[in-house]
Amino acid sequence: MPRSPKPIIRSDIAYSTPERISVRGKDLPNEVxxxxxxGDFAYLQLTGKAATPQQSAMFNAIxxxxxxxxxxxxxxxxxxxxxxxxxxxxxxxxxxxxxxxxVFVGSMEGACRMLxxxxxxxxxxxDDVDFDAIARATVASYRERGVALxxxxxxxxxxxxxxxxxxxxxxxxxxxxxxxxxxxxxxGAEAERVTGKSLPIxxxxxIGAICCEFGFPWRIVRGFGVMARAIGLVGHxxxxxxxxxxxxxxxxxxxxxxxxxxEPT
Amino acid sequence: MPRSPKPIIRSDIAYSTPERISVRGKDLPNEVxxxxxxGDFAYLQLTGKAATPQQSAMFNAIxxxxxxxxxxxxxxxxxxxxxxxxxxxxxxxxxxxxxxxxVFVGSMEGACRMLxxxxxxxxxxxDDVDFDAIARATVASYRERGVALxxxxxxxxxxxxxxxxxxxxxxxxxxxxxxxxxxxxxxGAEAERVTGKSLPIxxxxxIGAICCEFGFPWRIVRGFGVMARAIGLVGHxxxxxxxxxxxxxxxxxxxxxxxxxxEPT
Amino acid sequence: MPRSPKPIIRSDIAYSTPERISVRGKDLPNEVxxxxxxGDFAYLQLTGKAATPQQSAMFNAIxxxxxxxxxxxxxxxxxxxxxxxxxxxxxxxxxxxxxxxxVFVGSMEGACRMLxxxxxxxxxxxDDVDFDAIARATVASYRERGVALxxxxxxxxxxxxxxxxxxxxxxxxxxxxxxxxxxxxxxGAEAERVTGKSLPIxxxxxIGAICCEFGFPWRIVRGFGVMARAIGLVGHxxxxxxxxxxxxxxxxxxxxxxxxxxEPT
Amino acid sequence: MPRSPKPIIRSDIAYSTPERISVRGKDLPNEVxxxxxxGDFAYLQLTGKAATPQQSAMFNAIxxxxxxxxxxxxxxxxxxxxxxxxxxxxxxxxxxxxxxxxVFVGSMEGACRMLxxxxxxxxxxxDDVDFDAIARATVASYRERGVALxxxxxxxxxxxxxxxxxxxxxxxxxxxxxxxxxxxxxxGAEAERVTGKSLPIxxxxxIGAICCEFGFPWRIVRGFGVMARAIGLVGHxxxxxxxxxxxxxxxxxxxxxxxxxxEPT
Lengths: 265, 265, 265, 265
Known about the structure:
Chain A has helices spanning about 30, 40-45, 55-65, 75-85, 90-100, 105-120, 130-145, 165-175, 180-195, 205-215, 220-240, 245-255, 260, and strands spanning about 15, 20-25, 25.
């Protein structure tokens, strides 16, 4: 296959020498260990920059929100996998992560993208942006195309998703309640007005908006959910190892699913 | 399949009601968000207990140590996967995690297990334990069975793995430099004495020992590496999205691997 | 969460009793083993029907086409994973499969979907369909929307993808060279006419068209590539176990990627 | 890191040129497509050799046996994953495969390994081997070490696993009922004699023995289960797409698992 001159393979994340381990320009043992918490180090790993105290507070809160959501399909998949391959704990976490797609967790990127695309370029840094007008146009456009608005509504948490006011409060306290948060709120209000339904901004919507305030590319936002949920899944596997439920789930489902085949009617 | 009375399916990790989300007995929005960092929340998720300031410092340091190790096989697998399925970021992280097994990262559990098994039950809480004697017996037993000692030696970091003294320093500062750390150090010294080789305690060995001080079951220790590395892999995927190397790696390997088949000699 | 009456959990694929194992209504030991080949059994598993000799010939050929494509990103990811976790062969295959997404393999479903959507409902079973007119409309519509046509062009196989004429020949021999194959060929010709470029129908396009002839839902077509490639990846892992390359790849990439960080300019 | 002279990266599996695609030395379009079934091509991919008619019959039967086992933990994990990420079908298959470890499927390699290790080197090609004596020694050694014998017993299929007599029948018909099959049968009989329990040779044991007759390395035998099950999982996902059960399973498990947390006693 004819190719252009050999491209460079290059990464700016980390390097090691016999006596040194450096991540994002910092000496890991001496400048990082004992000086940062895990959320801050995640911020450094992803952005190449040290988090300010405000960024640290907000980013840790976002990640923590995404760690654990109960006995989700993802947690069940991880427990099922662990039951078959307890010697491969890493594969059980991997199996649980594989389902964080367009339906769960991955949906977060939708809110982030919607806000980036809706916000006019000239709005940056101005005080007199008419967020309600942008919200009206956005809601109308989504409804016209028959696409669900991202970040609104929750099957269980009604009329308010309890994470949202707290995340917005933290955003305000940390100087991150900017135009994207305002636009998300306008879109939520407009959607409720137009549909007549209760459509609270859910955690996904709040996090999507705050990720815009950080300036994260929307394509990476799903990754925050993935890395946070990895922590949650290790918790589920630890519990599964001590008090298993996977085999019982399996037998119940198998019994029920094939009952009509086994027992002639 | 005849079965005993239907067992209970029960998890103590989390629950949700319309207005409440609770993890490990804490109200997530109000008692956790803004009050904890990600490492502390991981500790809560895994143990059901809030970390003390000392446990927080130590546990965050352990996890941070495990986030990023450069362009590892795991990072390469994640980047390769992302090149084929950029819409499935979660699957790229999952692919990268799948290789954290007996050779890399999973090796951590070996040091933890070795120390638990070597430490006599009656040693707990006593001051006069002869760690050198236990170390001699342990090293002799591993050598007899032809099994490599866990947590010793490193292909690159010689004569010292720079993470180890820093992790042990943090353990001392946080009241966790107890019998398992001492035993690991005795085993390291004994192994160097017996083999005549430079066998520094590596990060794996240091973390294994400190995990014993925490009292973590050895089976879950690999999980710390898995959840930390998930963060590192999202960083690699973020870089890959901006400045890709996967296709170049692929083409070079493919060209070289099949050259002898394509070109008749 | 209030829910509608408990839905039924039911699967029609298989069941077991102490003395019987039944898959898709057939007694596995007595009616399947020794009476079918693997491709035919895959057809039975997926469709619930026994393949005719023609369907058997065609479906086996499709799956075989998808097994092995050389040292792909997917094969590299599997080998990298095996190097870290040789005790978890299944996780290495899983890692390799994770990247069969929109860029590789998953692209197959695009051709299938394009053809289903382009074919007018009233065309079924008629002889006088104007495929060239449909092709013109399809190509124009894709170009207008700036979307690449599925199943056309190949970076290496020019001016002809050698798999395509053979797959179409087998389709003709087995009575499956129907309207979708004709439409795919018309679209290919029209695309070459309009762009002035060499755009051979690639294996993806040929398989997509034949999958339409089978009547497979486009959403499952990617699955054929996934299950076939699982076979290919086991072959790569078997070779990797005997003559490894993963560690060498890792060291080369790591050395090159971080050279600019290690060596001060 | 100082390294020895750059090792060669080389694979003997496949290569492509613009007009040719070759796998294991065969021209894929012209020598393979239309001339082989999927099981035979798997044999070629793995061994580099064309299967004889006997090997073809036997290898296809082994793989087919491993495709589908009902609503297993692996199938449930795949369905759970598909529910969250329907756009990533490949990740759902990958998640399902991750659990094919030491407890399920992977157990197959145990029988294969046990037989290889038990069979004395000098037995090869001789008629007067005392299989009962080898079986007595093997069973005694496993019982002494407290290790379960591989390939014996089944929770459901009692007193006979219906796949085993059929697989052994096919082995006899195809000239593969050699010393390893005889030894497996002797071990089964001896285990029943010593324990007084019904311990039928299960499918795992039968396949393990026949894999020894083929001469497959025991480390790759798990791979047969992995590649076969990939087919089965695509079948489950296809059914899940048409008639979903994942969300219902999730809600039932979540409701039950956290009932004690939600409802104060």
